[in-house]
């Protein structure tokens, strides 16, 4: 369908206008045929018959209309050589017009214009092929003689098609446009050269037999047609220069490609070298196609540097020389090659001989690509087969997998491993100033992955949803709506039913908060200067949340009950959680936690009998203690000794304190608190008298309790702080102190 | 030295001569022409090298496309050092014969081993079927 518009939009001459209708009709028929038979569905027999007919017709009429690939045609046209050159230059300009339709329209002008246009159409192909470069490379490689047979039929046939408006009908064009899918991506010219071939041929046919024959052929068939028709037809040996160049280029390309498959070589030399008077048409037809096809892949080298055939040619030397230089006991490599291939390789070796200075590796044994590496890369015609674009694509794909906003989250183990490595190498460097060992480092993408949420397109009033699923947005299997019951009654119900589960949930939530908070230090380091305040306040907020979770503080309630906290502390994970959270809390918050613990220590000790994880709290507690003022420490001891109760029954056994003393954690905590308090007491001389008295009283109480507890009941492995006995010595006499000392040892 | 993740690190090895060891034990030597993210490889001017003792032989294989999963290891061949090897190159026929002989000897010894084990009443260790290539 797209052909119609293209026809219309092209700058048509008056002439063209007249033919437009015809062209469209042609196209219709073409389309119809293709639809019916499918591309390439037609029999060879009638095809050949067509060709024969076509040839007959070609001779008289074709020359007049077409731009001459053959000199014969050129003569008929009366075009001088310089005209051809001019044509070429114009071709270059013109090929910039990417629209084939436009090109086609141009062709249909006068005979002179035609030739130019058609020449260009050889090159313009379906894609934006830089015809300039093709010509550049093609021209210098003009062979001494080229035969019509050798030539790509496309060149020959093309002009006719384009010159005749009827023929110039869209369908013809359409074939190449659609054919090579990858053209745009590839800088390979040959493919493009190849592709138009069918088109041209077809055009020829159409011209001759407008309706019945031409359009019936599928592109595939068309490919074959020209060749046979060509061959049946005696062409003159001399060809117009322009075409020769092009032809030459193609042939070279073909030869190049031939390297891939030795079998193809069989024909090449004959083609290139001498006028091929009688090549089997069928063979040739097959050959040309084959040879041209693979060439595409290697065109890069054509454009990139010296072509193999015309490679930098040092004075060719004798083959034996080469062999003599490289003492290899055995060189079986070429044995498997086709004789022709081998011969070709030999020739190439000779050409390359001087370039292989190293001569290490068996040069030329297998295509002569074993020189030293640089050399090899430089002259390797197959190098860069993988385009930069493709390489980039591969690296991009690999990089994409490493993209992440948070490498710690996505690739925790690698990150840590790498940190370890770096630390290791850092210490290595410090320890010995030897040769710095360079460690390979993985390149990771610097771009953070963009998190995009997928919003399915929704049309108003439509029932279904349009979804595009991808790796990032997998298709939703089910779109269930979560109906949440009333928050209040549910939580209440739950609380009653299982408070423990609720507590577990709280612990989990607090843990994730904790992890977040722990992450902030890293994020802070990574963040920009400007983002830091925001991060800090965020962190503060999260710490507050953690504390609230811990204490179960309900809004409006000034002093939360210890209940919630005790629930958490009854669970092993909760205890560890508290130990981890404490360092982040503010002194007041930490003190609150500490006091709550002290207040309920006997209960906690009882609950901890199995777990025995309370000791893990000692360390954070001691850290906290060192930031507490005397007042708080005093009240802590008060809580530990449960003074309010003891006040009621001072003389009676203090169950609370006894329980604390008989536990490892409790005793350690008491020691810690006492020694810290004593430190504060001794350093802080200006303490208030009342506080001082209170402290002394507490101290006495604790000592008394300590003395009363039977030695066996005291947990053994707790080492008392060093200053403890000097501390006690201030409150008890020597005898009791000795007693205490032996008891505690 | 920095390297790219995954097979992207192979990109800098493209167009260099490589030795590829396949999962089935074959050794290929050729020019690495193209790779993709799966480490699928295209080798050009490939030879399959068979080593037997101190001898080796090359069987030309042309263009070789290797599915990535079959690559055991892959390394560039130093063209400078390639020629100074102690190994001796022999013809394909010869190396194939050598290989056959070696295989036969191996099977013989295996058979003997099995027999000896049987005589001692020991179970024959099950041959790893994967080793048969």
TrEMBL record, chain A:
InterPro entries: Pat1-like, PAT1_dom
Residue spans of biased composition, Low complexity class: 160-171
GO terms under cellular component: nuclear speck; P-body; PML body
Ranges of compositional bias, category Acidic residues: 10-26
Keywords associated with the record: Cytoplasm, Nucleus, Phosphoprotein, RNA-binding
Biased composition (Basic and acidic residues): 145-158, 366-381
Region (Disordered), start-end ranges: 1-26, 56-80, 140-173, 300-383
GO BP of this protein: deadenylation-dependent decapping of nuclear-transcribed mRNA; P-body assembly
Keyword check for RNA-binding: yes
Location, primary (coarse class): cytoplasm
Pfam families: PAT1
Biased composition (Pro residues): 306-319
Top-rank taxon: Eukaryota
Residue ranges occupied by any mRNA decay factor PAT1 domain in the UniProt entry: 455-697
Subcellular location: Cytoplasm, P-body; Nucleus speckle; Nucleus, PML body
Gene Ontology MF terms: RNA binding
Similarity comment: Belongs to the PAT1 family.
Full protein name: Protein PAT1 homolog 1
TrEMBL record, chain B:
Subcellular localization(s) per the UniProt record: Cytoplasm; Cytoplasm, P-body
Gene encoding the protein: LSM1
Keywords annotated in UniProt: Cytoplasm, mRNA processing, mRNA splicing, Phosphoprotein, Ribonucleoprotein, RNA-binding
SUPFAM superfamilies listed in its UniProt record: Sm-like ribonucleoproteins
InterPro entries named in the record: Lsm1 (IPR034104), LSM_dom_sf (IPR010920), PTHR15588 (IPR044642), Sm (IPR047575), Sm_dom_euk/arc (IPR001163)
Complex and partners: Interacts with SLBP; interaction with SLBP occurs when histone mRNA is being rapidly degraded during the S phase. LSm subunits form a heteromer with a donut shape.
Organism: Callipepla squamata (Scaled quail)
Role of this protein: Probably involved with other LSm subunits in the general process of degradation of mRNAs. Plays a role in the degradation of histone mRNAs, the only eukaryotic mRNAs that are not polyadenylated. Probably also part of an LSm subunits-containing complex involved in the general process of mRNA degradation.
PROSITE patterns registered for this protein in UniProt: SM
Family assignment from sequence similarity: Belongs to the snRNP Sm proteins family.
Protein name: U6 snRNA-associated Sm-like protein LSm1
Gene Ontology MF terms in the entry: mRNA binding
GO terms for cellular component: Lsm1-7-Pat1 complex; P-body; ribonucleoprotein complex
GO biological process: deadenylation-dependent decapping of nuclear-transcribed mRNA; mRNA processing; RNA splicing
């Amino acid at each position: 369908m797209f052909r119609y518009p293209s026809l219309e939009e092209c700058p048509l001459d008056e002439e063209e206008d007249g033919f437009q209708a015809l062209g469209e009709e042609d196209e219709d028929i073409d389309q119809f045929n293709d639809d019916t038979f499918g591309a390439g569905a037609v029999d060879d027999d009638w095809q050949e018959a067509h060709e024969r007919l076509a040839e007959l017709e070609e001779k008289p009429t074709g020359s007049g209309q077409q731009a001459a690939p053959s000199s014969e045609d050129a003569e008929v046209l009366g075009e001088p050589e310089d005209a051809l050159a001019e044509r070429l230059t114009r071709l270059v300009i013109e090929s910039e017009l990417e629209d084939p339709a436009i090109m086609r329209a141009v062709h249909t002008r006068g005979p002179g214009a035609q030739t130019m246009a058609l020449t260009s159409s050889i090159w313009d192909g379906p894609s934006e092929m830089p015809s300039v470069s093709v010509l550049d490379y093609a021209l210098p490689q003009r062979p001494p003689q080229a035969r019509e047979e050798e030539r790509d039929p496309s060149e020959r046939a093309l002009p006719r098609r384009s010159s005749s408006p009827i023929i110039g009908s869209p369908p013809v064009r359409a074939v190449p446009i659609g054919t090579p899918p990858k053209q745009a991506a590839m800088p390979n010219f040959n493919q493009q050269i190849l592709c138009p071939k069918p088109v041209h041929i077809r055009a020829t046919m159409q011209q001759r037999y407008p309706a019945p024959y031409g359009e019936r052929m599928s592109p595939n068939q068309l490919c074959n047609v020209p060749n046979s028709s060509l061959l049946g037809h005696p062409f003159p040996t001399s060809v117009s220069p322009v075409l020769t160049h092009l032809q030459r280029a193609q042939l070279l390309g073909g030869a190049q490609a031939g390297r891939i498959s030795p079998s193809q070589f069989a024909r090449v030399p004959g083609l290139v070298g001498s006028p091929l008077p009688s090549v089997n048409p069928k063979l040739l037809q097959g050959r040309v196609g084959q040879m041209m096809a693979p060439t595409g892949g290697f065109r890069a080298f054509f454009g990139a540097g010296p072509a193999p055939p015309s490679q930098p040619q040092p004075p060719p030397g004798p083959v034996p020389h080469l062999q003599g230089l490289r003492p290899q006991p055995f060189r079986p490599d070429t044995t498997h090659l086709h004789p022709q291939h081998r011969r070709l390789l030999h020739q190439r070796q000779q050409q390359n001989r001087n370039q292989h200075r190293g001569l290490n590796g068996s040069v030329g044994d297998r295509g002569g690509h074993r020189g030293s590496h640089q050399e090899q890369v430089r002259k390797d015609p197959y190098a860069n087969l993988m385009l930069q674009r493709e390489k980039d694509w591969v690296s991009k794909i690999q990089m994409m997998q490493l993209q992440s906003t948070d490498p710690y989250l996505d690739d925790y183990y690698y990150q840590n491993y790498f940190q370890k490595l770096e630390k290791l190498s850092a210490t290595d460097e410090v320890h010995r100033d030897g040769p710095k060992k360079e460690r390979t480092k993985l390149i990771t993408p610097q771009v953070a992955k963009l998190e995009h949420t997928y919003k399915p397109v929704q049309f108003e009033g439509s029932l279904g949803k349009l979804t595009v699923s991808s790796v990032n947005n997998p298709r939703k299997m089910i779109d269930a709506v979560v109906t949440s019951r009333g928050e209040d009654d549910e939580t209440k119900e739950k609380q009653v039913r299982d408070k423990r589960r609720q507590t577990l949930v709280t612990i989990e939530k607090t843990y994730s908060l904790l992890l977040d908070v722990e992450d902030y230090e890293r994020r802070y380091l990574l963040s920009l200067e400007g983002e830091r305040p925001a991060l800090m306040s965020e962190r503060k907020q999260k710490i507050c949340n953690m504390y609230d979770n811990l204490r179960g503080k309900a809004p409006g309630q000034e002093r939360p009950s210890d209940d919630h906290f005790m629930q958490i502390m009854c669970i092993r994970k909760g205890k560890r959680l508290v130990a981890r959270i404490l360092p982040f809390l503010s002194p007041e918050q930490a003190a609150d936690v500490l006091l709550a613990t002290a207040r309920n220590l006997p209960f906690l000790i009882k609950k901890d009998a199995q777990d025995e994880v309370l000791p893990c709290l000692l360390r954070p507690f001691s850290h906290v203690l060192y930031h507490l003022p005397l007042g708080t420490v005093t009240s802590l001891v008060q809580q530990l000794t449960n003074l309010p109760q003891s006040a009621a029954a001072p003389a009676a056994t203090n169950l609370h304190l006894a329980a604390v003393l008989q536990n490892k954690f409790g005793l350690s905590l008491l020691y810690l608190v006492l020694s810290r308090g004593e430190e504060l007491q001794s350093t802080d001389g200006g303490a208030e008298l009342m506080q001082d008295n209170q402290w002394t009283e507490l101290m006495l109480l604790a000592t008394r309790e300590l003395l009363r507890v039977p030695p066996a009941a005291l947990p053994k492995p707790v080492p008392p702080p060093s200053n403890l006995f000097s501390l006690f010595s201030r409150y008890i006499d020597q005898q009791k102190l000795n007693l205490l000392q032996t008891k505690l040892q | 030295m920095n390297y790219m993740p995954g097979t992207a690190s192979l990109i800098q090895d493209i167009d260099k001569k490589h030795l590829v060891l396949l999962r089935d034990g074959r050794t290929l030597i050729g020019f690495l022409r193209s790779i993709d993210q799966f480490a699928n490889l295209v080798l050009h001017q490939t030879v399959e090298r068979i080593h037997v003792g101190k001898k080796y032989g090359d069987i030309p294989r042309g263009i070789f496309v290797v599915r990535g999963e079959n690559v055991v290891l892959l390394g560039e061949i130093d063209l400078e050092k390639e020629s100074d090897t102690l190994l001796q190159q022999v013809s394909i026929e010869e190396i194939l014969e050598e290989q056959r002989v070696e295989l036969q000897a191996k099977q013989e010894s295996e058979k003997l081993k099995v027999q000896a084990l049987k005589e001692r009443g020991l179970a024959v260790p099950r041959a790893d079927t994967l080793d048969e290539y």
